[in-house]
Design goal:
This protein is of the alpha/beta class and 497 residues long. It is built from 18 helices and twelve strands. It comes from uncultured Eubacteriales bacterium.
Length: 497
């Protein structure tokens, strides 16, 4: 079946409270997608963001981002009075997220709501805590500890807490921080109650949600603190090598992500149980799961810890199909998309084929004028079993790409696509993926809105300017839905809701 969808993160929805959330605006966007004949809403990771604000650097691979909790929904449930949050300063620019302001403002409001909720905790809350105890207990304790240490990374805590080496001290500290631990548990309950309601609403409208799983976890995360044996750490619990990407045509220094790397040999001895639990959990949260940096399961780039660039890394062997066979044996076959971008070797291509997952084709990568052989990302080279994109969250918008890419590449794109001034390059490029043989085609919301570089979500290897873009109220208009539905029908991708 030919399908299509839209990539737009929850944070980018309009809201009077500084950031998009899981309330009325999210349901209205679902209505827009349904009216437009779409099948998918693709999101970035919904985990808590840490320093740098990236959803790919998070305090927990299991928890939900407290910023995405809709405050009006809490008010409707009697957990907040409107005057407790409506008069606060949520920022001056409705088109951008101010994460620093959000950090200072959102948590005091959530503490009020959680305090009221915990006065009369429900059976549903007790069931949630029980079902999720395998991650929730450690997460809530970790966040309470982090807060008690002024937000410092766990590597800077006193040794017994850092090393988890003193059970008696652990118990005394848990008791001392009991109210804070309860707060972090309640926040997660409120998050996932809203998430389940939003996902149910979307599914009832015929919209499936594509989620995103980063391959790596943050060094300053409960995942590493609670399970250090799963990672390549030294006796001081510092990484021996860290993750990144080698230098390429986009970056002379490469990309230094800094995440700790996995001990694949150790993980294999347990049947990859850590990964089975992680992927199984994510597949319950979403309808389809995109696994980021899929090529890292074939071989991964390892950079000496302490390096300032990614230039001196080496390639090391990953787990390959052993991991995915173990996952499928444990949880069955799942709807998974492999983000197979980057430096693709024959062994990476073989891993993708063996997995059976659809890979990704990004049209902005197709027009390298130096590639005389013709890129795999050109639509005439697509295979059916793939997901085609104009660009991802790491790319420019189409109009931004047209303004910033090398002149020869832009000229080639205009010639190949037959770009016309009347239609606009963004609609021409979107039309080319809709018309392709790809089973699924996904467009960025920014491209549907004719936006340029000002709306780019992320520029890799930069900090301080990313993850901020927000749409303005009225962006999901009936007129745009009708236009998108027409294009979807023309190219036989219509979803019959």
């Amino acid at each position: 079946m030919r399908t299509s969808g839209v990539l737009m993160h929850l944070t980018s929805l309009p809201s009077p409270h500084g950031i998009g959330a899981m309330g009325t605006a999210a349901r209205k966007f679902v209505d827009f997608l349904a009216d437009a004949g779409q099948t998918y809403w693709q999101l970035l990771p919904i985990c808590p963001t840490s320093f740098g604000d990236s959803p790919y650097q998070t305090f927990s691979t299991f928890a939900g981002n407290p910023y995405l909790i809709d405050l009006d929904e809490l008010s409707n449930q009697g957990l907040l009075e409107r005057e407790e949050y409506e008069g606060l300063n949520w920022g001056d620019d409705p088109a951008s997220v101010d994460y620093g302001l959000l950090y200072r403002t959102r948590y005091p409001v959530l503490r009020v709501a959680c305090s009221r909720f915990l006065q009369r905790p429900t059976e549903e809350y007790a069931a949630f805590c029980g079902e999720n105890s395998f991650w929730l207990e450690d997460y809530a304790f970790f966040m309470a500890l982090k807060e008690s240490h002024g937000g410092a990374p766990w590597q800077d805590w006193e040794a017994p807490l850092r090393n988890r080496s003193d059970p008696a001290l652990f118990q005394r500290t848990r008791e001392a921080l009991a109210s804070d631990i309860d707060f972090w548990k309640a926040v997660q309950f409120l998050f996932f109650r809203q998430w389940r309601a939003l996902k149910s609403y979307a599914n009832d409208k015929g919209i499936s949600i594509i989620g995103d799983l980063p391959i790596y976890v943050s060094g300053d995360s409960v995942d590493v603190w609670a399970s250090p044996e799963q990672f390549q750490l030294d006796e001081r619990l510092l990484p021996t090598e860290v993750a990144g990407c080698p230098p390429d045509g986009f970056s002379a220094d490469g990309q230094l992500w800094g995440n700790p790397l996995f001990r694949w040999d150790y993980m294999e001895k347990s049947g990859f149980s850590w990964w089975v639990r992680r992927i199984g959990y994510q597949c319950r949260i979403y309808d389809v799961l995109r696994i980021d940096h899929f090529r890292g399961f074939d071989s991964y780039y390892a950079i000496p810890f302490g390096s300032t660039t990614a230039q001196n890394g080496v390639w090391r062997e990953g787990p390959g199909m052993k991991l995915f066979r173990a996952v499928e044996a444990a949880i069955g076959k799942q709807a998974i998309i492999a983000e197979d971008l980057g430096f693709l070797t024959p062994s990476v291509r073989q891993l993708l084929a063996d997995s059976g997952f659809p890979g990704m084709k990004v049209l902005e990568f197709a027009f390298d004028s130096r590639d005389g052989s013709g890129s795999d990302y050109l639509p005439h080279n697509f295979v059916r079993h793939c997901v085609a994109y104009t660009g991802t969250h790491d790319n420019e918008t189409v109009l931004g790409w047209m303004d910033s890419a090398p002149a020869a590449d832009v000229a080639y794109a205009r010639e190949y696509l037959r770009v016309s001034a009347a239609e606009g390059a963004n609609w021409t490029m979107m039309r080319s993926i809709w018309a392709s043989v790809a089973d699924t085609a996904v467009t960025q919301m920014q491209d549907l809105l004719d936006l340029g570089s000002e709306a780019r979500m992320n520029e890799p290897s930069t900090v301080g300017k990313n993850w901020k873009w927000r749409a303005l109220p009225g962006f999901d208009s009936p007129q745009l839905a009708a236009r998108l539905r027409h294009e979807t029908e023309v190219y036989c991708r219509i979803s019959q809701h």
